[in-house]
């Protein structure tokens, strides 16, 4: 049975941004609502522009039931061309990956997105010519390689007025003054200096215009090997120890070149190992952390767990969820990266030793580790403006190849790797373990990850500062001359109105350290244990649902005492690291001091909001962290209203602007998918095979609990 919503009769036109052009469209396209196979959905128009793919139905023009957390650039049924991951066609109920020229056009189109949305379109009722145009257009504009200047980024920059808001206090690190201010802030200006050697990019196009090196390093040394072999300053600890990074020399070289470079490095090491510098420890990340290829492979497997076509597929994976999650190796990579960051923090904090991170280009894993260390050790990096400044310093200006790693131009799959996404996953672990320590929320991290694929901001669409500068000059449609004026992603007003932006700020952020040390462990949000891997290798029981709360406290306690044996064999970790880790966790948490993530076993969790927000089956009605946030925000609003009344009584004057907080009345109506999706239908009740049902009957209380989730038809019984 097909539940059909009548085709729209009035003409619906897409909302086009400045510089956006309509390329092709198809009418009478049927968009499925992912339900239980009943093929329910709605008719509308499918369009493709030079910016996005969009589905327009009669609800697209209505302002009724508009979500509180609406993105002003990308709508609920919009997919930016850079956000398209893979496109499949359905031929006679068989899925086939669509690439290049097609001989036969599909009757159904399935689009998998990089933000893990899945769209199903039926083209059976669409005119044949329109099907050819729209399918060919979507594949061509979203999957084939393109030139940099063909990105919508340039069309938008040349057509849109630049009204960017620079009041956000984010430091861009594109001037010498920014680097000098950072040196002064971290007290690193005694031993390190900001240099202008690379002005005009005469040293290297991969290095930024300005960067910081030890005072003893000469300009000749920087110029000798195009910046390779030079320790570049990242951050200074309160005790004077510094975090440095270095671009390594190529490994495959002749003996004479290798000996010359080795002598050069020895000279550099000796220079910065003398007073006033601390001892130096080098760490080659290419040998101590997974390769970019390993990271890409793990994430590719991991994201498949969340690209769900329908309810049947969802519940089919539930039975083997633990083994599937473990086989991806994604959580293990997160744990290894966090462990490496703790090792570096231990050298800086306890051993007062400089740490030099080494990598081939020093723009991938170096960025991850240096950023994590600063988030853990510098409370400024846990504020919103501080974190944004950190991303600018280490990633944008630091030369991370966003264009290649995100594969925005579809040039080479070999270069693709979710390195920045790995950082956000690691930071999320800290945010969910220590909520009061961060000024921003997990929602902030989620929309930041989404912004990777929105090509109106220059932040994540260049490989280096040089590439951006080289492509900034161009013709503007407004002025007929002058450089492009790109937007920065840090101006959140471009994507969200003030009411929505309030979701990015943490109302529980601890402005000052609490003097009461009896508050050792703060109340933690309740997390689903199924978002982390169990500690044993035993087969996971089929009696536990995908999001069922584990209640066997005895087993938890027993396993908890054995965590160290499972995670850290006796020969894996030096005793100093374990001592440092255990010692810190035995003391009260200072939310403005050093933060060490818990990395043992199940403490490493799946980032539920990002990966499960589009899956109705995974929602908790009236639950999740959003229910807690709703109560807090309601309380904040009440306090603010009382403050306004008190001010009015005292001053006999009307109060000025009051910082707005989102209205989240009646949180029972919300689900854990909020604010990215409104309240969805109840989860489709799976029809379980008889054998599975018999397994469930082993525990009476579980049968009663799961009875509302399991539907057994008469013929099955």
TrEMBL record:
CDD domains for this protein: PTP-MTMR12
Limits of the Myotubularin phosphatase domain: 173-611
GO CC, sorted alphabetically, is: membrane; sarcomere; sarcoplasmic reticulum
Which example biological process does GO assign this protein? phosphatidylinositol dephosphorylation
The record's listing under PROSITE patterns reads: PPASE_MYOTUBULARIN
Residue ranges that the Swiss-Prot or TrEMBL entry lists as coiled coil:
none
- According to its UniProt record, where is this protein located? Cytoplasm, Myofibril, Sarcomere; Sarcoplasmic reticulum
What does the UniProt keyword field contain?
Cytoplasm, Sarcoplasmic reticulum
What family does the Swiss-Prot or TrEMBL record give for this protein? Belongs to the protein-tyrosine phosphatase family. Non-receptor class myotubularin subfamily.
According to UniProt, the name of this protein is: Myotubularin-related protein 12
Give the species this sequence originates from: Galbula dea
């Amino acid at each position: 049975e097909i539940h059909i919503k009548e085709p729209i009769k009035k003409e619906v036109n897409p909302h086009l941004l400045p510089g956006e052009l309509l390329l092709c469209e198809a009418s009478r396209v049927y968009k499925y609502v992912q339900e239980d196979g009943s093929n329910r959905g709605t008719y509308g128009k499918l369009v493709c522009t030079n910016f996005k793919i969009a589905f327009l139905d009669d609800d697209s023009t209505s302002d009724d039931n508009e979500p509180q957390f609406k993105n002003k650039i990308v709508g609920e049924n919009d997919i930016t061309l850079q956000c398209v991951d893979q496109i499949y066609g359905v031929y006679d109920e068989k899925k086939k990956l669509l690439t290049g020229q097609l001989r036969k056009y599909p009757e159904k189109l399935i689009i998998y997105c990089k933000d893990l949305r899945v769209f199903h379109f039926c083209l059976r009722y669409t005119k044949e010519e329109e099907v050819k145009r729209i399918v060919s257009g979507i594949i061509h504009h979203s999957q084939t390689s393109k030139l940099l200047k063909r990105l919508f980024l340039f069309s938008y920059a040349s057509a849109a007025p630049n009204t960017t808001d620079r009041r956000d206090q984010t430091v861009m690190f594109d001037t010498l003054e920014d680097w000098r201010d950072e040196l002064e802030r971290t007290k690193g200006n005694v031993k390190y200096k900001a240099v202008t050697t690379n002005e005009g990019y005469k040293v290297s196009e991969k290095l930024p215009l300005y960067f910081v090196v030890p005072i003893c390093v000469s300009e000749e040394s920087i110029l000798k090997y195009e910046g390779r072999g030079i320790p570049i300053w990242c951050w200074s600890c309160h005790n004077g120890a510094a975090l440095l990074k270095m671009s390594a020399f190529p490994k495959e070289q002749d003996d004479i070149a290798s000996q010359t470079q080795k002598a050069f490095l020895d000279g550099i090491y000796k220079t910065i190992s003398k007073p006033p510098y601390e001892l130096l420890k080098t760490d080659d990340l290419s040998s101590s952390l997974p390769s970019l290829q390993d990271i890409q492979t793990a994430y590719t497997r991991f994201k498949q767990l969340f690209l769900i076509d329908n309810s049947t597929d969802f519940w089919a994976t539930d039975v083997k969820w633990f083994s599937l999650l473990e086989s991806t190796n994604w959580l293990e990579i997160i744990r290894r990266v966090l462990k490496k960051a703790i090792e570096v923090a231990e050298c800086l904090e306890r051993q007062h030793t400089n740490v030099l991170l080494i990598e081939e280009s020093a723009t991938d894993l170096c960025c991850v580790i240096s950023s994590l260390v600063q988030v853990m050790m510098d409370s400024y990096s846990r504020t919103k403006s501080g974190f944004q400044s950190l991303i600018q310093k280490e990633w944008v200006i630091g030369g991370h190849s966003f264009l290649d790693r995100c594969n925005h131009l579809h040039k080479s799959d070999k270069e693709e790797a979710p390195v920045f996404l790995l950082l956000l996953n690691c930071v999320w672990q800290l945010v969910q373990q220590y909520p009061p320590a961060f000024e921003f929320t997990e929602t902030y991290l989620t929309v930041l990850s989404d912004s990777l694929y929105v090509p109106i901001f220059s932040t994540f669409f260049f490989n280096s500062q040089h590439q951006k500068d080289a492509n900034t000059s161009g013709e503007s449609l407004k002025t007929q001359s002058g450089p492009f004026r790109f937007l920065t992603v840090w101006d959140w007003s471009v994507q969200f109105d003030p009411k929505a932006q309030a979701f990015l700020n943490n109302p529980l952020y601890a402005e000052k350290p609490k003097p009461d040390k009896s508050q050792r462990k703060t109340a933690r949000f309740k997390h689903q244990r199924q978002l982390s891997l169990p500690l044993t290798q035993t087969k996971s029981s089929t009696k536990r649902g995908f999001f069922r709360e584990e209640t066997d406290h005895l087993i938890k306690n027993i396993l908890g005492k054995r965590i160290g044996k499972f995670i850290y064999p006796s020969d894996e970790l030096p005793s100093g690291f374990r001592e440092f880790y255990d010692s810190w966790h035995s003391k009260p948490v200072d939310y403005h001091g050093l933060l060490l993530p818990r990395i043992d076993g199940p403490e490493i969790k799946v980032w539920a909001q990002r990966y499960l927000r589009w899956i109705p089956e995974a929602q908790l009605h009236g639950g999740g962290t959003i229910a807690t946030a709703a109560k807090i925000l309601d309380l904040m609003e009440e306090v603010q209203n009382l403050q306004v009344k008190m001010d009015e009584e005292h001053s006999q004057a009307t109060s000025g602007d009051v910082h707005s907080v989102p209205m989240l009345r009646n949180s029972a109506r919300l689900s854990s998918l909020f604010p990215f999706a409104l309240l969805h239908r109840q989860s489709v009740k799976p029809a379980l095979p008889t054998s599975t049902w018999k397994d469930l009957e082993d525990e009476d209380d579980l049968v009663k609990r799961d009875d509302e989730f399991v539907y057994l038809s008469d013929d099955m019984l």
